[in-house]
Each structure stands twice: as structure tokens, then as C-alpha cells.
Amino acid sequence: MASELEFFFDYGSPFSYLADTQLKGLAERTGAIVVYRPMLLGGVFKETGNTSPIAIEAKRKYAMTDLQRWANHYRIPVPGNPHFPINTIRLMRGAVAAERAGVFVAYHRAIFDAFWREGLNLGDAAVVRGTLRRAGLDAERIAAMSEEHTVKDGLRVATETAVARGAFGAPTFFVGEQMFWGNDRLMFVEQALTALS
Length: 197
Hints:
Distance between the termini: 9 Å
Largest sheet: 4 strands, mixed
Shape: globular
Number of strands: 4
Strand content: 5-15%
Oligomer: single chain
Number of helices: 9
Strand order of the largest sheet: 2-1-3-4
Radius of gyration: 16 Å
């Protein structure tokens, strides 16, 4: 039976985006199944008393440098968005809706790429709809589903679950009950998965 790697993320986290670019290769090397867990990073910060790195000048400067280092290491374009930060609650509810509609893979790729590769203003609902349509998705259906109470509750519960399990930021990974925080912990994630296989 394949081991599972749980990936708790928020589209507004550039380090979640960096990690996401590496998960396919990691899964192929370890035989693991990646389980995507959308959560609301703002909610995690609120519940844990944590703050975004951009709120602290020294952290913000370092994070920008670190982003460039990791992008160079992964040999991918440096993620960036002139509209960052934005409130991602609609995007994250959209992820839950897309999961329930069976189109998560296409939604996930479209949103992450639009945010961090194309630098689009995904705080604008019209831009989000255009992004989803270009990906061949039913943007109106996803938007409507995102407003359903079950979807809103789903995101809230996922966020609360992440916090209850120890998450305080994104990306957060779980291999069984082992928690790993940060894109820079993927080496240890892979070791844990390899040990299980």
C-alpha cells in the first residue's frame, strides 16, 4: 500500500508554490500519494498567533532572497506577483469546491500558475473566472459552489484540523503523524516516505 503525503497549503504562500513544483518528482521517487489539503493561512496565523513574514521588514527581505535561492535551486522562474498579498479565502474555497466537483487537479494548476508565474490579480473575481475558463473549467459553477455552506465549512474544518495537528504556517506536510514545515524540509519529507516504503 502506498504511503501518503499530506500537503497543507494556501495559494497565497509562495513557498507553498515552490514546494508544489517538487511534489510530482518526490511522489515518483517514493511511490507516495500526495493528498492536497487546502487551508486558509490567515486563519492559521490567527489561531496560532503567528504573522506573515511580510509583516516584519527583516523577515520580508530575507524571504524574498530565500525565494530566489530556492527558485534557482529548483531551476524554475522566481515566483512573484505585484498584487501580493491578497485575501485568498475565495481561492481556497474554490479549491474545496473544485475537489468536490472532481476538477481539483486542473483548478490547482491554473490558480498556482496564475498567481506565481503569471502574476495575475487573483483578488479580482473576474480575473479568477477568466483564469478558470482558460483552463477549461466551469468558472461559474465553481464560484457558485464556493458560496455553499458545506464548502465554507469544509475549508474552516480543514484549517482548524491543520492547527490542531500542529500547523502554524504553510506549507505544512504530514507523513503519518510526523509534521514538517516549510519548502526547505522536503528532503526530510522524502526520507520519511522512503523509510515507510
